[in-house]
Amino acid sequence: MRNYILKRLLISIPTILGISIVIFLIMHLIPGDTISALIGTNYQLTEAQAQSLRAYYGLDKSLPMQYINWLWNALQGNLGLSVRAGIPVLAEILNRFPLTFELTLVAMVIALIVGLPIGILSAVKRDSVLDLFGRLLALIGMSLPNFWMGTLIIFVLSVYLGVMPNSGDYVDFNVNPLANLQQIFWPAITLGFAFSAAVMRTTRSSLLEELNKEYAQTARAKGNIEMVVIFKHCLRNTLIPLITLVGFQMGYLFGGAVIIEEVFAMPGMGRLLLDAISQRDYALVQGTIVFIAIIFVLVNLLTDIAYAFVNPRIHYE
Amino acid sequence: MPSSIPASTTNDRSFRKTTLGRLLRNRSGTIGLVIIVVYLFIALTSSWIAPFSPIAQHPKDRLQAPGSTYLMGTDEFGRDILSRLMDGATNSLRVAIVSVAVSGILGTLAGIVSGFFGGWAENILMRLMDLIFAFPAILLALSISAALGPGDSNTILAISIVYMPIFARVARGAVLQIKEMEFIEASRSLGASRWRLIMQHVVPNSLTPTIVQVSLALSWAILTEASLSFLGLGTVPPAASWGLMLSDSRKLMELAPWLAIAPGVAIMGGILGFNLLGDGLRDVLDPRLRSGMKGGK
Q: What is the pLDDT of residues A137-185, one digit of tens each?
């Protein structure tokens, strides 16, 4: 197992390097750099001042040199300076990441709390009114664009109920957990709804499959009541595809969080990245994207490890 | 979902046995197909059937609630919402169809080549695809669009790049499976050339999962196009786009809630239609993969 984890981590290194190179190239192939963006907007710089600024941020060197410099510093934990904000990229990322992470996590928990029971009920009471309702809910969940749902939620909350969940001033979890959770509740519902549909569909179809297998028949034949057959025997096997789904969709949720942050005006990673790209803040874009890619790789790895725990038949060599 | 398997009593050429015939007896497939046909019709004819020009401003009729002249009301410039929705269908479906065509053709080609030939071609192509896969899809599309700037062609590029690996994996998986089958062996032993093997046997037989994937990809493309437009990274105003209309509606929500309803319903209908069609196609074309096994990406 330990060897497997090590191997997986080693394999992911070229992937992350590849991503950083591709992003680096794309960002530099697009016309217009940070400094000219600065001169063009707020600041009146002479050409000489611009040159010295370029030299300060290392933008006057050749592309390969710039990349090697970046990589060398990144390996030491220094992702460079954000040109716009003037603070270290890593600090900026670590500042914004907790909110996005919390949003993703809460959304996932909500989705599991909603999707799992409905999925189980739907499978057990197959073709009943309940099942129809569950499947309809899943269908809506899969087709409802989350930014529309968020817009409607804000509309109902502010116009009919007179409460505004977020008006820009975001409270950190460490400062006031209750206020923080209140703020994150509706965005998390919005983000988690589509995922709960996926959870429900997966739970339903895989539990249906398990309930018809021979071991379930054997359990019934031994005189077990259906509850035991479902919860003690079948549900465990249903967890296997569900874990794949959760791991797979974690990245999807993380991406969706970007849009939700925009809808609810929350200062998360997504908005950081979008702003950085439009401002040509190379170091910030590069750092953020590599950071996300690393998180993504780690989540996938955790998924595979969780897999081995749930399913003892799987052995990683 | 007990999808009825056709009794093979009628002769082979009867309509009931064709893909379309079987699709029409699949409930979700039928509903999906109907929605898509309606959407396609509106998209193709929007410039003729729309009551007004989608960008014509009627300054006297700003923010009109839905009524007899403007069936779905007007926006803050007095533009007719219904006409803009219809034009939005044209734009949205064009972006979705072109990007799925590009990613589908290139991705499937990459998948077939790497599946059939293996070796270094497979290594390079699939590693490239892994690179794209190693990043949340919607975030990648967002990043590409933000870097390239708004506009339909950039949106198409972003969606194509992000979806390509999925087509590649689907095609490669199918080719790997078919390559080992006996009829390929038989054809090879009869002296068929590689080209003939690929074109005559491998490609036609490996396209089934790709067809299902096309429908699901279209639903994802519509959602992504709307998301990008919503964030201001897609269609450039004043052209109509559902996502953009929804985004504009936010600041006027208390005055004119109808602005936020119609485009949302339009987006949802499109996604729902292609999702249902994809589910139906999967049930019909490949009984081994039952619907509901996989969530969308």
A: 888 888 899 899 998 888 888 777 777 655 556 777 777 777 778 788 8
* CB-based contacts of A150, cutoff 8 Å, min separation 6: A186, A187, A190, A260, A263, A264
CB A170 within 8 A of CB A183: yes
The residue among B252, B146, B221 whose CA lies nearest residue A158 is B252
**Residue (of A202, A315, A191) closest to A261 by Cα position:** A191
CB-CB neighbors (< 8 A) of A292 in chain B: 135-136, 139
Interface test with B, best of A27, A127, A151, A286 (most B CBs within 10 A): A151
The ipTM assigned to this model is 0.82
From the list B219, B264, B293, which residue is nearest A205 (CB)? B293
Provide the 10 A C-beta neighbour count for residue A5. Answer: 14
- Helix H segments across B118-151? 119-133, 137-148
Are A111 and A193 spatial neighbours (Cβ–Cβ below 8 Å)?
yes
Max CA separation in chain A (angstroms): 87
pLDDT digits (tens, 9 = 90+) for A209-238: 888 888 888 888 888 888 888 888 888 888
